[in-house]
Amino acid sequence: MTADASRGDALTSTDPGTGRAGAGDGRAGVTSVDRQSNAPVADGGLAVAAAGPLGVSGIDRREASDLRADGAGPAGPSGVAPRRRLVDLRWFRIAGGALLPLVLLVAWQLASTSGAVPVSMLPSPEMVWTAGVDLAERGLLGLYIAISTQRVFIGFAVGAALGLVVGAVVGLSKLGDILLSPTLGAIRAVPSLAWVPLLILWLKIGEESKVVLIAIGAFFPVYTIVAAALRHVDRQLLEAGRAFGLRGVRLLSVVQLPAAVPSVVSALRLALAQSWLFLVAAELIASSMGLGFLLVDSGNNGRIDRIFLAIILLAVLGKLTDAIVGLFERWAVRKWA
User: Fold this and answer.
1) CA–CA distance, 284 with 300 (Å, rounded to integer)
2) Contact assessment for residue 228 and residue 171, using Cβ atoms and an 8 Å cutoff
3) CB 313 within 8 A of CB 148
4) Buried-most residue among 7, 101, 204, 291 (CB within 10 A)?
5) Model-level pTM?
6) What is the mean pLDDT of residues 30-59?
7) Model confidence pLDDT, tens digit, residues 154-209
8) Angle CA(233)–CA(235)–CA(240) in degrees, nearest 5?
9) Phi and psi (nearest 5°) for 307?
């Protein structure tokens, strides 16, 4: 009887910290919170018992209510999350990025209108704007922009695709590295303008020579960075993939490429900028349309306002296309990295 009475007292004992009875539990002073924290937890098929009042994560469950729902840290006394920093706000990033261009524009306007610099050397922003409106009204500005952008996109796509393939071969195969790296390293050192006369002789003055030159410019950044990134993938990731039976293309697509995604996207951004550089090199020498042709034609005619217009358009187009690749980078990193 004494043992039975003691057992009954244990079943109806009250937790001194909460004042609640632990009836129905086989241990004295065990509340529902304690039962949850002491219950076995399935972790990959293994039962892991969390001893004491702490949960599996080591956090006192009675203090869990003091943590913010998003896990960013403890909330303030009123439960309100801390304010975000100013540099993390989207409007501040946009305004900060536009600040320097606005300052340069104001300085340009003052320098050109005050007489500090002759107009023949530095046209005013209004003159450049007027030149752009004149070309647009004649139907030439949009045509030049469209042709140059098309050449860049086609050449970039071809060069980047070849760079990914060859970079993967060199980065994953020691034999490929031995056979290809020395020759490609030597070709990479050839300046862009050195290819122009050869491509004109081979492909004549047409779209093919320009696209091939742009593809050459886009190929080498992608090839170089992708080969280096794949060559330095963490060996532990590779061993884990092989342990799951991944080999060849499956290992490349599931383990190696996702590990190299940030480097691959950086290579694409650099290749796109290089494509715009090689576009100007092609259009400067052999072209009858495009922004490079606008530069050459304006220089021959002494139209410095159109020269500034072409330079500004190249800068804006380069930034816009880079922003597109930046959006792809966020999506790719979120999906694979």
Assistant:
1) 12
2) yes
3) no
4) 291
5) 0.69
6) 40
7) 999 999 999 999 998 998 888 999 999 999 999 999 888 888 888 888 888 888 88
8) 110
9) -65, -45
Tokens 């100013």, residue? Answer: 86
- Classify residue 248 as left (phi > 0), alpha (psi -120 to 50) or beta: left
- Please report, for residues 88, 227, 335, the alpha-carbon distance to residue 262 in angstroms, rounded to integers and kept in the order given: 22, 13, 11
Do the Cβ atoms of 130 and 230 come closer than 8 Å? Answer: no
| R_g (Cα) of the chain, nearest Å | 33
Neighbours of 25 (CB within 10 A): 17
Phi-psi region of 106 (alpha: psi -120 to 50; beta: other; left: phi over 0): alpha
Compute the C-alpha angle 114/118/123, nearest 5°. Answer: 85
Give residue 127's identity as a one-letter amino acid code: M
Q: How far apart are alpha carbons 160 and 218 in whole angstroms?
A: 6
User: Are 282 and 213 within 8 A, CB to CB?
Assistant: yes
Q: What one-letter code names the amino acid at 217?
A: G
What was the pLDDT predicted at 224? 93
The letter for the amino acid at 285 is I
Q: What is the token pair recorded at 111? A: 């320098």
- Helix %, strand %, coil % of the chain (to 5): 70, 5, 25
The Cβ of residue 70 has, within 10 Å, a number of other Cβ atoms equal to 8
Torsion sign over Cα 281, 284, 290, 294: positive
Contact 193, 282 (CB under 8 A): no
Element (H, E) at 43: strand 41-43
CB 56, CB 38: distance < 8 Å: no
Please enumerate in sequence order all residues whose Cβ is within 8 A of that of 11, keeping only pairs 6 or more positions apart, or say none.
Answer: 22, 23, 24, 25, 26
Are 306 and 298 in contact by the 8 Å Cβ rule? The answer is: yes
Q: CA-to-CA distance for 104 and 311, rounded, in angstroms?
A: 15
